[in-house]
């Protein structure tokens, strides 16, 4: 007599939790966040390029070395900024490093991740930035799914290149095919 | 007469001061030593070593020749290690299940000291003096975790003790300097707390104008990065930070 009541109570409790979790109108779409792969052409994925300064789009980690301020553009590279005057930061250049999300410096050497490789870049002359060391296979690189869990995403299409990262996007009206 | 020489002296002092922090205007020169990362960093350079997190490992590279990092060690620190913060001869590793403290007595070979475990969430950690400050956040509202700030007494690094916790709104990266804690708080921007008594932090002010993901403190500038861009504050008065510049996000259409 008692047991079924308890069971029902438990079921009710679980049910309450579940609905609280998914929200009232999301029965069909339990995932709130949707991600889209960022692609790079395979032959370009391991090429570092110095480009003119550009605007921030999806800023990630930041790093300060003396008066140099570095802002990671997620999965794409680094904005280098002269921050001698914090009231008037001066963009210097954009360092394109496919897949990059991390950086640290010792002296004028900058260590960054480029897909699966650990790179050492010499910044002693910003007009002539050089790749001085490359250690292959240090990192796992990007998978065919986003690193976040409980998300839906646009399925990877290998024809479009290699995945260098993931960016947030609006949930498509037709729903999603891939999720984790 | 006195006035004139006073001003000459003042001018000379100013000039000296200027030349001592000289930077050519067009190119930010970089000197010796390591730079400063945010609390979300997965790479850090400390005492001539490069430490980096990769999957469940902490790799150590010796930078005796900084142009050629030489791998000296690889230590398993467990799944979901997310952030690394160096302080006073130790490394603090933020993972999804807790914070590890590693000794750098031998900088080339970090040694495991202890773990402070907490519920599953994501946590960067920063340290000042005998206290570690960490934020826990839930990535998705469906997790059963909490969003909170925790302060640990780490005077015994073998046995960190929780001394304070406070519920927060989706806190992310943080920075601490001289008893002032700067917490980037997602859409709520930046929260500044006086933690000179870490058992009883006092909220100084909230700066809600810019989305906050991580912060770096330097005496010249408090920088916060988030989905709106990079905002810099003059940190002179933490209770009344003065915004000095913004590098905005400008999505391409």
UniProtKB/TrEMBL annotation, chain A:
<protein>
    <recommendedName>
        <fullName>LVIVD repeat protein</fullName>
    </recommendedName>
</protein>
UniProtKB/TrEMBL annotation, chain B:
<keyword id="KW-0732">Signal</keyword>
<dbReference type="Pfam" id="PF08309">
    <property type="entry name" value="LVIVD"/>
</dbReference>
<dbReference type="InterPro" id="IPR013211">
    <property type="entry name" value="LVIVD"/>
</dbReference>
<dbReference type="InterPro" id="IPR011047">
    <property type="entry name" value="Quinoprotein_ADH-like_sf"/>
</dbReference>
<protein>
    <recommendedName>
        <fullName>LVIVD repeat protein</fullName>
    </recommendedName>
</protein>
<feature type="signal peptide">
    <location>
        <begin position="1"/>
        <end position="25"/>
    </location>
</feature>
């Amino acid at each position: 007599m008692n047991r079924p009541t308890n069971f029902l109570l438990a079921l009710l409790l679980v049910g309450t939790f579940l609905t609280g979790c998914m929200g009232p109108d999301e029965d069909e779409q339990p995932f709130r966040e949707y991600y889209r792969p960022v692609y790079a052409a395979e032959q370009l994925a391991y090429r570092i390029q110095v480009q003119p300064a550009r605007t921030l789009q999806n800023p990630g980690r930041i790093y300060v070395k003396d008066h140099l301020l570095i802002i990671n553009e997620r999965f794409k590279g680094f904005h280098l900024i002269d921050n001698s005057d914090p009231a008037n930061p001066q963009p210097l250049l954009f360092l394109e490093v496919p897949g990059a999300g991390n950086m640290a410096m010792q002296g004028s050497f900058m260590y960054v991740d480029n897909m699966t490789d650990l790179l050492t870049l010499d910044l002693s002359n910003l007009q002539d930035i050089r790749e001085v060391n490359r250690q292959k296979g240090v990192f796992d690189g990007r998978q065919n799914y986003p690193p976040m869990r409980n998300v839906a995403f646009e399925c990877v299409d290998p024809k479009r290149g290699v995945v260098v990262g993931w960016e947030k996007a609006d949930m498509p009206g037709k729903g999603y095919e891939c999720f984790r | 007469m006195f006035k004139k020489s006073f001003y000459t002296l003042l001018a000379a002092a100013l000039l000296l001061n200027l030349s001592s922090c000289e930077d050519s205007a067009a190119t930010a020169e970089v000197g010796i030593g390591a730079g400063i990362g945010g609390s979300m960093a997965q790479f850090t350079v400390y005492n001539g070593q490069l430490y980096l997190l990769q999957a469940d490992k902490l790799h150590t590279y010796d930078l005796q020749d900084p142009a050629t990092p030489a791998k000296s060690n690889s230590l398993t620190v467990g799944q979901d290690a997310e952030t690394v913060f160096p302080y006073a001869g130790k490394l603090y590793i933020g993972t999804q299940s807790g914070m590890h403290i590693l000794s750098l007595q031998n900088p080339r070979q970090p040694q495991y000291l202890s773990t402070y475990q907490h519920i599953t969430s994501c946590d960067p950690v920063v340290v000042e003096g005998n206290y570690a400050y960490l934020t826990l956040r839930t990535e998705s509202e469906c997790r059963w975790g909490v969003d909170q700030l925790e302060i640990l007494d780490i005077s015994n690094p073998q046995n960190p003790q929780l001394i304070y916790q406070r519920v927060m709104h989706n806190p992310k990266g943080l920075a601490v300097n001289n008893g002032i804690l700067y917490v980037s708080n997602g859409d709520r921007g930046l929260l500044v707390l006086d933690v000179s008594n870490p058992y009883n932090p006092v909220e100084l002010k909230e700066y809600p104008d810019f989305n906050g993901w991580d912060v770096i403190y330097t005496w010249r500038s408090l920088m916060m990065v988030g989905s709106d861009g990079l905002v810099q504050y003059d940190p002179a008065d933490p209770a009344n930070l003065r915004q000095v510049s913004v590098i905005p996000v400008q999505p391409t259409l």
